[in-house]
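Entry:
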Amino acid sequence: MKKIFIAFTLAMVGLSTSALAVDASCEAKATEKKLAGAAKTSFLKKCESDAGATTASAACEAQAAEKKLAGAAKNSFVKKCSTDTKAGTAQSACEAQAAEKKLAGAAKTSFVKKCSADAK
């Protein structure tokens, strides 16, 4: 159990570190395409989502290999792990946005709940 917790923690740290690189990469691509306004916002959201899914999947694949899973068990584990990781990452991102907006109490709870639902 301790090894699973450590692996998950390391995966989350890796995701948060790579998220900064993803932001910069997506931002550069948007600038290169000369996007602005709603088009830029939409592009960045999709770009970051696609990159996050790839990173989460890679971390989950590594965990499956460490557990020596194969076949259907591996596929099932990777699918669940990726879903759980995306949900946790979305929750963290939404909480960060709430903090930036200086929301508290019921307003924060409502914002985070809606933001997380929209991310799914």
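The chain is about 90% helix and 0% strand.
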